[in-house]
Write a structure and sequence with these properties.
six-stranded parallel beta sheet; alpha/beta; 13 helices; 312 residues; two-stranded antiparallel ribbon
Length: 312
């Protein structure tokens, strides 16, 4: 008896500012596709400029999902994202279109293509509060070093400045008695992922990062952050600590100057780009990498079509 082939899932990965958005929209238009965002920052309403959220015009009529689905003070975790992404991907397939999973949040991408079995661990707010107080005493980096000692594999995927994720990992470890990385058991992916990566030289990528940040500032990033404050969203929210928002909050509160905020955004974004390489490695045999060129989109389309034909 012939085993039923899995449905395809086109996955477009690469670092921030590499050009995933425009490329994926063009490919989706050519291949009758619809796009599922795998960017944790695009989930949130009222956060448009600082997240480089595509406009209606830029979307060119291609449906985009998991964009603007939550308010900044709503809690979305990896389990919720995975559940909702599976629902949407299945719906796209049922309508005989091709789903594109696109974004730079490696955790989201891997949870889908590797079928992570995420433990249904409910938050323990008392433990979380204790960990937050511990972090106040020893600092975010000190707490991160404790996680790194207990579970180096989990720590490798976390930026030490992302205190929320460090605390979440320690919370799960202390509640279950198991390493956070071990709890993310993999099961079979329900799809047949075709993964394409976009790459640029590091020098060019950094230049594009700086240009993007200047464009955000010119389009009104400071005003966007001020509006979030006026809407009553606290600077202490984890969503508000995202790169671009946290630095501007500090500027608006008089903690740093405007120039210091801009330089911090650029520096932190570059650091983030380097960390993204931990999720999308150049030697990962699952990823077909493409260097940016005038012919790249055509080459990517041919590759996808060849893979789709091979899987028929």
């Amino acid at each position: 008896m012939t085993e039923k082939r899995k449905d395809p899932l086109i996955v477009i990965v690469g670092p921030t500012a590499v050009g995933k958005t425009s490329v994926s929209i063009e490919l989706a238009a050519r291949l009758n596709g619809e796009i599922v965002s795998a960017d944790s920052r695009l989930l949130y309403r009222h956060m448009d400029i600082g997240t480089a959220k595509p406009t209606e015009e830029e979307m060119s009529g291609i449906p985009h999902y998991l964009v603007d689905v939550a308010d900044p003070d709503e809690r979305w975790n990896l389990a919720i994202y995975q559940r909702e992404a599976y629902k949407i991907i299945n719906d796209i397939l049922e309508r005989e279109k091709i789903p594109f999973l696109v974004g730079g949040t490696g955790q989201y991408i891997r949870a889908i293509i590797e079928g992570w079995n995420i433990p249904p661990q409910r938050p323990d707010y008392k433990l979380r509060e204790a960990l937050e107080k511990w972090a106040e005493r020893i600092g975010a980096k000190g707490l991160y070093e404790r996680l790194k000692f207990i579970d180096p594999e989990a720590a490798e995927k976390i930026d030490y400045r992302n205190l929320r994720r460090t605390i979440r990992a320690l919370e799960v470890i202390f509640k279950t008695g198991e390493r956070f990385s071990d709890l993310r058991r993999k099961q079979e992916c329900p799809y047949d992922p075709i993964i394409l990566g976009i790459e640029r030289s590091r020098e060019e990528l950094y230049e594009r990062v700086d240009q993007r940040i200047e464009k955000m500032l010119g389009e009104g990033l400071v005003e966007e952050v001020r509006n979030l404050l006026n809407k009553g969203y606290s600077p202490d929210l984890s969503t508000m600590s995202a790169i671009g928002y946290g630095e501007i909050f500090k500027y608006l509160q008089g903690e740093i100057t405007y120039d210091e905020a801009v330089n911090l955004i650029k520096r932190n974004t570059r650091t983030f780009v380097r960390r993204q390489a931990n999720w999308f490695k150049p030697d990962d045999p699952r990823i077909k990498w493409f260097s940016v060129s005038p012919e790249m989109v055509g080459e990517m389309e041919l590759w996808i079509r060849s893979q789709l034909n091979d899987k028929k």
